[in-house]
Write a structure and sequence with these properties.
The structure holds two protein chains of two kinds. Chain A has no helices and eleven strands. Helix content of chain A is 0%, strand content 55%. By secondary structure, chain B is an all-beta fold. In chain B, strand 4 and strand 5 form a beta hairpin. Chain B starts with a strand and ends with a strand. Classes of the chains: A mainly beta, B mainly beta.
Chain lengths: 121, 113
């Protein structure tokens, strides 16, 4: 059974960096059969896919255009986890953030518990 | 980006009756190499992450009751709940994973009439 456990601060000040971590159990961040994604949800933007990291002989990333200049998703093979960094946040980045497993071609099948991140001074 | 549009935004159905939710994509999500539609349906209850119900437009995820079914191909898809149960009250989302950036519909809020 795959489990994804998220951690990170729930409050971030404007212009600072949002950082979240997702620890994987029951699978490997280095697997060739999945990708590891971050998705956020807010009343104004709905469910918004932010990006993913995956390993296919080397590491790849895909990012949403809306955050591409500000986002980094990194794997950490030593801890079997992956992380999200979103720079220069504004109140528009306030949302529930989810990590998730993308088991192509079957879709996103496992989600973390979600972390409400509020951007406020 | 592929835009996903669901209808209706909200729906009230009596217990035991059929519920139907539609989803339209702005371009085809049919993957020609395997003839599969990269379209999924999720159920989300308050305070929980979305739960995968259907992938490949019509394949039920393991453990999902058979009253849930999906149909459609190309750009037009439907989620049907054949006999609504109280525990089915939730928001339902369609989702395309044909190509990044992946996108979701705006959600359909399903209630009991």
């Amino acid at each position: 059974q795959v489990q994804l456990q998220q951690s990170g601060p729930g409050l971030v000040k404007p212009s600072q960096t949002l950082s979240l971590t997702c620890v994987i159990s029951g699978d490997s961040v280095s697997t060739n059969s999945a990708a590891w994604s971050w998705i956020r949800q807010s009343p104004s933007r709905g469910l918004e896919w932010l990006g993913r990291t995956y390993y296919r002989s080397k590491w790849y990333n895909d990012y949403a255009v809306s955050v591409k200049s500000r986002i980094t998703i990194n794997p950490d093979t030593s801890k079997n986890q992956f992380s999200l960094q979103l720079n220069s946040v504004t109140p528009e980045d306030t949302a529930v953030y989810y990590c998730a497993r993308d088991r192509r071609p079957f879709g996103i099948d496992y989600w973390g518990q979600g972390t409400l991140v509020t951007v406020s001074s | 980006d592929i835009v996903m549009t669901q209808s209706p935004d909200s729906l009230a159905v009596s217990l035991g009756e059929r519920a139907t939710i539609n989803c339209k994509s702005s371009q085809s999500v049919l993957y020609s190499s395997n003839n599969k539609n990269y379209l999924a349906w999720y159920q989300q209850k308050p305070g929980q992450p979305p739960k995968l119900l259907i992938y490949w437009a019509s394949t039920r995820e393991s453990g999902v009751p058979d009253r849930f079914s999906g149909s459609g191909s190309g750009t037009d898809f439907t989620l049907t709940i054949s006999s609504l149960q109280a525990e089915d009250v939730a928001v339902y989302y369609c989702h395309q994973y044909y190509s990044p950036p992946y996108t979701f519909g705006q959600g359909t809020n399903l209630e009991i009439k």
